[in-house]
Amino acid sequence: MTDENASTGVIPGGAEPDETSGSWRELFSGAHLTASLVLAGGVAVYAMNTFVTAALLPSTIADIGGEQYFAWVTTSFMAASVLTSMLVARTLAKRGAARTYLLAFLLFAAGSLGAALAPSMEVLLGARVLQGLGGGLLAGLGYAVIRDARPERLWTRATGLVSAMWGFGTLVGPAIGGVFAQLHLWRGAFWLLTAVAVVLGVMSLRGLPRHSAESDDFGKVPLASLGMLVLAAAAFSVAAVVPVGWPTAAALVTGTLLLAGFVAIDRAASSPVLPRITYRRGNPLTWLYIVLGILSAAAMAEIFLPKFGQELAGMPPLLAGLFGATVSVGWSFVQLFSASVDDERARRRLMLLGPVLMTVGLAVFAATQRADAGGIVWVWVGGLVLAGAGVGLAFPHLSVAAMRSTDDPLEGSKAAAGVGTAELIANAMSSALVGVLVAVGGPGAAGSTAMGAGLAALGVLGVIAVAAALRGRR
After folding, report:
1. Smallest Cα–Cα separation from 365: which of 451, 438, 459, 427?
2. pTM for the full model?
3. Residue 57: which residues within 8 A CB-CB, separation 6 or more?
């Protein structure tokens, strides 16, 4: 990116490279098949682990105790994930794609093995930290390696495949966890995750480059920036589980202040976590990260959807679980279609249409909440699938726009890895937000209305953010 573009906020790529030869068939051809499976598998393992663990926790606590640590099973994993997601670009430049992926899968496998063998909840928490360290690398690598190891004509389709795995994990994770919990074999789920991680780690050595083409001159590790962001993620996670009232407010305020502190420290750092262009006035990368985070937040509604399905519509547990995946269904399937779009003008329209559909879908859901829902449940399903479709339409193109936000190799690697970091931070913040909205709204339909309306309002901010990001290209 030239200095002029950096200051005016123009996203490079006004004259797009010829991508007509890029196709799904090429992405899964012999030359790219193993790499595509590793990239998609890494994100899928991360996403599935989150929901597998949630489904297993009641059985786990019944076996080894530690109910007082219930919330920290998720918080410890999330905080560790945010930390290593910010080290993706540095690790990738030093070790290359193959060895970095191997490190990530080995960390995740070690954590999963520790969880499978854990004799107590304290040991399980330590294992979850190891899982998170590996998972954060996997979440960021899925995007960073696309930029570094795949031809540009395949970026959009590869991004669509990788980010669709978040929805895939939401669909498959609860089912896997539920089956092992039903069989009273909760440790078996972690043994399965261990085996999958080891297999994917071996595949990464065979399908990815062992050396990086990028310089590894990143400077000192920005410990102050990293610490502030990890603490912010932890504060937002705590906000979702403390009693509603002043503890919730204190946790949210603390998280917000820590996040602002991260921005201030990282902006002044000699070797910042995020690309320097993120902090330049008018640069679109800031807005791209914001809207990617907002779109990711839509899926956090699924935390409470099974509960509302049972309470308001009388769904049996299995059907309520399927209802809980409606946003992910829309996200995953539509994203694979959207990633096939190569026309630049159409891409811009999809970027803008995405948060619009997210807003409309969630607003429909919020406006139709009532007890004894009956047949109106299908309206809920339609609204939630529409919201997920909006995420799927925009996400791959926004991610690629972030990858193309600079021509500098080091900054470009940071920009690509930042997509995963933006998702993880958004998940921590929005999961807390959803929990607070439901609690403040009150029991029954009032809580679900508050959740839907709050996320719809967030979608409006997403429309504004993507419009700001696209303005420089007109």
Report:
1. 451
2. 0.76
3. 70, 73
